[in-house]
Each structure stands twice: as C-alpha cells, then as structure tokens.
Amino acid sequence: MAILWRRSRNIANRIRKCMNKGFMGCAVVNQSCWSSTFQSSSLSNLRPVPYQNSRYLRSLPWSRAALFSVLRSKSTVAEKQLDSFFSSDSDDDHRSLDFPGGKVTYTSEMNFITESSRMRVPCYRVLDDNGELIMGGDFQQVGKDVAVKMYSDMVTLQIMDNIFYEAQRQGRISFYLTSTGEEAISIASAAALTEQDIILPQYREPGVLLWRGFTLQEFANQCFGNNADYGKGRQMPIHYGSKKHNFITISSPIATQLPQAAGIAYSLKMDNKKACVVSYIGDGGTSEGDFHAGLNFAAVMEAPVIFFCRNNGWAISTNISEQFRSDGIVVKGRAYGIRSIRVDGNDALAIYSAVSAAREMAINEQRAILIEALTYRVGHHSTSDDSTKYRELDEIDYWKMARNPVNRFRKWVQNNGWWSEQQETEVRNSIRKQLLQAIQVAEKTEKPPLTELFSDVYDHPTSNLQEQEKQLRETISRHPKDYPSDVSV
Amino acid sequence: MLAIIRQTVSNGASRNRPAFYASRSYSAAVKEMTVREALNSALDEEMSADPKVFLIGEEVGEYQGAYKISKGLLEKYGLERVRDTPITEAGFAGIGVGAAYYGLRPVVEFMTFNFSMQAIDHIINSAAKSNYMSAGQLSVPIVFRGPNGAAAGVGAQHSQCYASWYGSCPGLKVLVPYSSEDARGLLKAAIRDPDPVVFLENELLYGESFPVSEEALDSEFCLPIGKAKIEREGKDVTIIAFSKMVGYALKAADMLAKEAISVEVINLRSIRPLDRATINASVRKTNRLVTVEEGFPQNGVGAEICASVVEESFGFLDAPVERIAAADVPMPYAANLERMAVPQVEDMVRAAKRTCYRSV
C-alpha cells in the first residue's frame, strides 16, 4: 500500500527559485494573463492545478507526480511571497504599503477581480467512467482487502437504502432518507480514515457508520425507535449516533455541525491527539451562516478538521444555480485561507486518495482542509419528497445508470480479479435477507419504557422531572385504558 | 447575613472534598468583594483545578474581558485556554458545543445575552437537547455566560432579559446570581455541572460590592443549583425577585418595614430548575405574593411562579398575585422613558401594599 507520490526536493527547490522571481498571484490583475496560459500550455494534457500556479508551471517540465509537491511547498513558500507581487521589476519594494494584515503592493491600474474564473476549478479523478485507471494519475493505492470491503459496503448501503425506503412506503417506519448515487462518498472517505477520527455527519452519510461496523440490525433499531436503539427512540429515523464508533449523533438543523467540528478539532489539538475531525455538509448547507463561522474559525484556530462538502446539485428542490453564484464550494476555501480540492464524488478511488492526503495534512500541519465532491443526488431528498416534480426523469435515470459510482468501482475491483459475478449475486442476496430479517426483528422489539421519557434531559433528573414521572405513573395506574398498552411502564 | 452553605451534588469522585476546613481560624472582619471579582476568582479557581476548563468569547483575552471579568486569565493560563474569537456568536457557541461533546468544559462568554440570539440554535437545538437526543452519548458540560437584562441607556437591542426564553427549554439549567457569593458559588457549580448551563449575569451588578463569608472564599465553595435563597425573612408578604431586582426588593422591604409591613424577600438564584418548594412554602407562610422581573411580562418568569403558586398553594392566597415586569415595549433609550420602562422600587412598594389591602 505504498503512497505513490513522493516529493522530490529538487523540484521543490526549483519552484522556490521560480516563485522568488515574483511570478505569483497573477489572478489579481488581468484575466488575460492566465487565461491565455491555458490555451498555449504545453502541459495541456495535465490536470491543471489551481489557476494561480499555472503561470509559472508552464515554464517547467512537470510530471504529474510533482503537482502535489507544488501544492505542498506552496504553503511554506507562500508567506515569503507577501512582499513580492506579480511583477518582473526587480525593485518592487518601494511600491508596497504597510497596513494591518501586512505589506501589500499597490498599483495604479484599476482592476476588479472578476467574479468568476474563465475556467472552473478542475476535478480530481482517478477512474474513468468505465472503471479504468486514468493513465499517469496519482492516487493512493488500495489493496484487495480494503477494496473488497469498500465495494461490498457500497452494495450494502445501496440495498439498505432501497429496503428501508420501501419499508417507509409500506408504513413500517415513518421516515427515511437515502444516499443513492453518493455511496462512494461515504464509504471511500470512511475507508481513508482511522477509528480515532471523529465524524460529524450531516444526514446523508450512514455509509461512514456502516464502514465502521454499525450493523444492519443497529440501523434498523434506530429507524424503528425501539428499546435496542442507542438513541432510545428519541429521534426520527436516520438520526444515527454512536459514541463507540466516534460518530456524533445526527442533528437536524443544517450546518450546525461545522463550527462544532472546529470545536472538537480544537480539543484534539489541545490534547495533542494524532487524529482529525471530518465533518460533512451538502451544497445547500454551505449557505448557512454556520458554514462561514465554522470554516473561518477552523482556519484561525488552525484546527485539524476536514470539511467535506457533498455537492450533489440539489437542496430539496433548490438547484445549485439558485443556491450560490460561485464556482461551487471549492473556491470558498481560499476565502478563508483553507486549502481545498475538488474531487469526482462518484470515483471511490479519488475520494480515498484525497481524504488520505487531507488527513495527513490536517494532522501533521494542524490545519483545516476543504474537499468538494461533485456528485448527483439520485434519490429524492427524503421520503417526504417527490423529486420528479422539479427535475426530469431522464436526468435522474442518466445519473442512476450511466454515472453510477457503485458499478464504476465494481468494474475496477473486478478487473483486478478481486470480485466475481457469483460473489455479486451471493452478497446481494445475503444482504437483502439480513436486512429483511433485521427489519422484522426491529419491528417486533419493544419500544423504550416510560423511564426513558424523562432520563437524559439532564445528567441526573431534577426534582420537577421526578415529580412529573411519579404523577404520570399514578395517572396511568388509575386510567390504564387511556394509555397505550405497548409502552412498558 | 450569613451565607448558608450547601454541598453541591457531587459529579465525580475527585470532587468529594469538605466544603471548608474546620482547623482554620477566621478573622473577625468580613471581606467585601465586587461581583466582578467574584466571577473572576471563580473562573480562575475552576481553570486552575481542571485543565479541561477553557474560556472562549470576544475580547476575553487581550482586552481582559469586555467587562473585565476575565482579567489576568490570559496571562495566567495562556492562549490555549483563553481564546479571543472573531465576531461570530454562532461560530464560537458552536465550537464550544463541539468541544463539550469531546469532553472539554468550555465557558462561552457572550458580550451580552442579546447577542446570544445569533447563536441560540446552538444553545437550544444542540447544547440543550443533545444529551436527550443521543440518549446520554453526547453530554454537553458547557457554560454560556454574560451580562443579561438592562444596563443604563443602551437601548432596545442591548437591554432584553432572556431569563424566561432560556428558562422554558428543558435540557438547560438557567442561573441568575445576585450577590458576590451567588456569583462565586453558582459559577463554580455551573462549571462543574455536566449539563449545559446558561449563566445570566448583570452588567450593573459587576461593580457592586457585597460582603462574603470565609466559607465562600474557599476554592471548593459551590452553591446548589435549583435552590432559592431567602434573603430576608418576613411574615406579611413575599417578594420574589432575581438578579438586580433582588437589590430593589430589599430596598422596598426596608421602606415597607417603616410602614409595619414585614416583607420576605426571596432571591431565586435559579430559573431552571425553579425552586417551587421554597416559593410555595413562603407563600403558605405569608399568603401574599409579588413577583418582580426585568423582563417582559408575557410568558415571563412571574407568570410561571404564578402558575406554580395557583397549582400548589391556591387555598393559601389571601390576595391575587401581583406581577411586576418591564413595560411591554422594546427598551427606549431616553433616560426618562427608560426609567418608566423598568420596574422601580416604588412599584414594588405599591404592589406589596395592594396585596396587603393597604392601598388601591
């Protein structure tokens, strides 16, 4: 499982020399300076790096492996660039001004930074749509055991979503929300982390919990809100939480987990732990004030947190064109001084690699990282939604069939000889059976008893709660027929 | 008046230490301490005793605290434990909640509770409810503190009292200290408490000086959460107040004593849990009740006290309950208008007399 990219110090030094000549930051002035770069770039077959770097990159014979080194060394060299701006003059120093925040050069040309770049930030991808490795790509190698677990968990998640969704439709549970189309995101990102990394989910990442060992029965118990539910029937279905899996209980208000993630990351930092926090958010959630608060704070506090944005194109019926006008979420990272990357959210290997790298940076450099995964929400927002009311059936079908992340990853795993059609059928049947069984068991399990109505409001129940419980029990014993018989007293 | 010391409910084996040391000999002179000093010393002692306690908020570090409550703490404990933050209440409240989920004990300062509204989702939907929703997996040992209620001449958006807003939410504990002993004992108890606590101070009380007993100066001194204090015993009418209004009630009691009306003044100390036992015992004794608060009348603390008394001590009331609260308007700025918008001592005197059938 060797990590394929390794910095070459020579290359890093070459960049430094080049950057010291002041070739940085061309984005601030004329658009044309870098847009033309792209047309004439001799490296056009390479995945372009964030646009600012491309100007000096053009003059150096880069191999793809070196691209990451650019990103790495850029952070250390960047501070030195505060004094020099894009200019070929050798005597810039007298053209700079001191302000709170540092030195800044001035210019008498009035130029507004354009509202968007000519080219969108490119998307990191390792496997093509047919599950073939893209030539010359760099990625974190994944061995057979991990790959097979990743694939079978993706299949499990897919089937779990189908069956629980149907159970809601049959009236057996009150609510459900699927991650159809986004299986690669939760499974592959979880696979790249360790058990010590703390997860603050939004609500469409049960795959992370599945990877960490939450059983189908445990999922079913929460959805049915029975006595075996770790949440003691306190929350709606899909609001999973498990302290032992380091998976913070799902909370409905959007984006509140982001500043909380910064807080947990800060705590890990205070404790000197070699672990990070990963918090998930959707495209819509980034409009919340807490997105700004969370990212800004994480950057200022230098907290080891990975903000993972699932940009699936839809926030219930709000399309991303109505959600924001920026180039997605990845460009917002720079606004907070946070290193960011855009990845193909339906490419399990790309996600695995990006999250591995992000984790290393977050922990070793004690910094926040932003990952934007582009994907598509194949299912409805939830069982309370019918997305055919606001989007085309053709569109949904296309993403479901042609851009399916599970099929794509299967092709790669099969091509490596690690999976067969027979295993596919066996696994699918087995999971289906286990799920139906789990639902039956969960449905029959008793609901939580009356004491659980009053416990956990506080660490120890206060006197008024104790009184209320006593009163309730007295009332029930006096009027038993007015109370449900299936709730044990 | 001697402070009554009670041991807080122990929440960890390490905390089982006697509240005071019998072998010490105490000096005869009573020490005086401002509420500011009381809060500062409480923070200092708790931060010293438990490395997990840290302070976060705007201006708490370098500036020594917007109201100088955290004076000297940055110097003593360093940047890791006293964090200045950007202006994002939602941000630092959320961060505090996250840190509390992890197991740290944050003390989050709001410059005033008026600004806490920008973070109220974190306080109510996350801090208050997480322990319940996660079935005990996510406890939130956090303290949200800061000045609450009216100051002087600060207008509508800086003067609201949030006691009844936070007091209505299960999962929170809401404390309202009055004197320096209250401030010390309740803040220490709040920091040690495993549940989220909203600690409502008062800007005008910060500079006020109160005598403190030797016991209250001890580093283990904690007051129990959920117990009111009878500041002054009486037999004709009960006045229940909290925070700054306790001082007004005591003044009203002095004035009424001259007219041979003996007032029992109760300092609530805790809005949630509300000490219904003490309230009702007092009403059963005096048979007359006046409630006082700085906040708006509708759905206020006085309304809850009324309901409790009607439910439990209806037969003991000799007169309808009088409720004194702020005028039902956003706080005006002009000094004369402001004076008319908040309860004054005279209002309490007149209300007490009405309950005693002494005036119309």
Mean pLDDT over the residues of chain A: 85
Tell me, briefly, the overall form of chain A. Answer: globular
Terminal CA distance of chain A: 55 Å
CATH topology of the largest domain in chain B: Rossmann fold
The order of strands across the largest sheet of chain B is: 3-2-4-5-7-6-12
Pfam family, one (chain B): Transketolase_C
Organism (chain B): Durio zibethinus (Durian)
Cofactor (chain B): thiamine diphosphate
EC number (chain B): 1.2.4.1
What brief labels describe this structure?
heterodimer, A: 489 residues, alpha/beta, Rossmann fold, 3 domains, two-stranded antiparallel sheet, B: 360 residues, 2 domains, 13 helices, oxidoreductase (chain A)
Q: Could you describe the 3D structure shown?
A:
The complex is a heterodimer of chains A (489) and B (360). With 489 residues, chain A is an alpha/beta fold. Chain A folds into three domains: 104 residues, no CATH class; 300 residues, Rossmann fold (3-Layer(aba) Sandwich), CATH 3.40.50.970; 27 residues. Chain A is built from 18 helices and nine strands. In chain A, the strands form three sheets. Chain A has a five-stranded parallel β-sheet with strand order 3-4-5-9-8, with helices on both faces. In chain A, helix 10 links the parallel strand 4 and strand 5. Chain A is globular and about 90 Å long. Chain A starts with 8 loop residues before the first helix and ends in an 11-residue tail after the last helix. Chain B folds into two domains: 194 residues, Thiamin diphosphate (ThDP)-binding fold, Pyr/PP domains (Rossmann fold), CATH 3.40.50; 127 residues, Rossmann fold. Chain B has 13 helices and 14 strands. A seven-stranded mixed β-sheet of chain B has the order 3-2-4-5-7-6-12, sandwiched between helices. Chain B has a five-stranded mixed β-sheet with strand order 9-11-10-13-14, sandwiched between helices. In chain B, helix 7 links the parallel strand 6 and strand 7. In chain B, helix 3 packs parallel to helix 4 and helix 9 crosses helix 13. Chain B is globular and about 60 Å long. The N terminus of chain B is likely disordered. Classes of the chains: A alpha/beta (489), B alpha/beta (360).
